[in-house]
Structures are given as C-alpha cells and as structure tokens.
Amino acid sequence: MTASSSNNIPEEFTEGNTAIISLDEELRNFKLQSFHSESFPNYINDLDNAAMPIQKAFGFVLDSALELERSKQHDEVEILRGCIPAIIELEHQINAQKTVLKDLEQHIRREPMNDIVGAYQKQMTRENAKWQLLSDKKKYKKHPFYTEFRNDVWAENHGDEPVPDSDDNDEDEDLVVGHIRQSTTCPITQTYLENPVTSRICKHTFSKHAIYELIRKNRGRIPCPNAGCGQTITTQILQDDFLAERRVARLRATEASQQQTQDFYNVE
Ligand SMILES: [Zn+2]
Prior knowledge:
Layout: H1 3-7, H2 18-29, H3 40-70, H4 74-81, H5 84-110, H6 116-133, H7 136-141, H8 144-158, E1 196-199, E2 205-207, H9 208-217, E3 222-223, E4 232-233, E5 238-240, H10 242-266
Helix pairs in contact: 3-4, 3-5, 3-8, 5-6
C-alpha cells in the first residue's frame, strides 16, 4: 500500500489497473497479528452504528402502516408488511459481518493469519448459507420487527384486546413471545423509558441514565434489574433501542391527544 511497494510491480501489470493488482497483492501477503485484534471492537462498533438506520427505516414503515390502519386501508398495510423481510435481510447482513469479525478476532489472538480477505469471504459465504437454510418463519416472523408490526397494527383498532394467533397454527412455543406487549416503562425508575437501552443478551430494556448509574455504582456489573432475570449486565452489552424510544413517543402522543379531547369536553 506504500508508494515503494507499487513501484515493485512488473511493468506489464501496471497498465491501467495498478491499484487493483497492488492492493490485491498487498492484502494477500498481509499478515494479521494478535495485536491487530485490538482494533476489532471498533469495527464491530461501526457495524452497530450502521444498524441504526435499519431500525429507523423499520420505524418509518411501522409509522406509515399505523396511519393507514387508522384509516382502514388494510391493503396498503399488507403491502408495507411485505417490506419487512427486505429490512430484516439488511440487518442479517450486518449481523453476519459482526459474527465473522468476532471469529476472525478470536483467530488472530491465537495465531497470525494470512489472506484475511479470503478468510472473511469464506466465512461470510458460510454465514449466508446457514441463514438461507432457515425457514421464513425463523428468519422473519419471529423477528422483533415482525412481531412489533403485528402487535402495533392490531392495537391500532383493537386497543388492549389480545392479538389473535398468527397464521402459523403449530406448537412452536417461541412464537408466544410475539404476544407479550413490549415494555414502555423502566424497571428501575418505574417511569416511561428515557433514552432506552436494551441488553443484547436478555433483551430487557432500561432508561440509559438509570442503568448506567446503577452499573457505575456497582463496579461495572449488576444482575439484570428485571424481576426474575438474573443475567449479568455490563455497559458493553447495552445497545440504544430506537424501537422502544418510538414506542414511548407514540404512547405519549396518544395520551396527549386523549388529554386534549378531555380538556375539550371539560370546557363547558
Ligand atoms: Zn434481563
């Protein structure tokens, strides 16, 4: 990648595509050593940031669907429901890259590694093949995007009535998760979630300030404050939760409009 190395390339290869040949060559000869693994958490963090717009895209799809559901345009809602797998596929790509980076990080901690690009591509192919083997139900219908969509669209016109069974009437118990109404309250503050963060491991959600404060006071780790959970929580496994944030925002908006209606009738 240095100027001197590209000067070493035989002239017949440099016609028009110097950069491609030299970069390829450089990458193949480059040896990753264990100290390189120290930069991996940054790369993984970058991927987490890249996942945020995907959550937001889902948020916009859901908002539009709720508007349409309110005005009983069910066909349009179904079109939007049909967009969810494409969003989940994007998220999968990022998750697969994270898995592969973590594997490579472990590998180079043990021994130096040649041909990192080749190894990366091979592992990505394997991750994607594993993903393709999953059924649509495992990939999409159990995904929080899908269950959130189903629950929220249903609640739009049915309030607190329980969501009916989904179209898959088998005994897959995990699907029951989709019926649990997701939390809008922080178990620590007992008030609405503020800047919600969710544990990557146990999926419980807290107000960021409250849980960070608790973790700080307890030297970096606490048992999950959610009753009956017990998973160890550190700041490393907490992730900003855009979906929870917009859930709270929607709830507040509904309450504000109910309050307005009440004020209107209380005037006389
Ligand atoms: Zn928990």
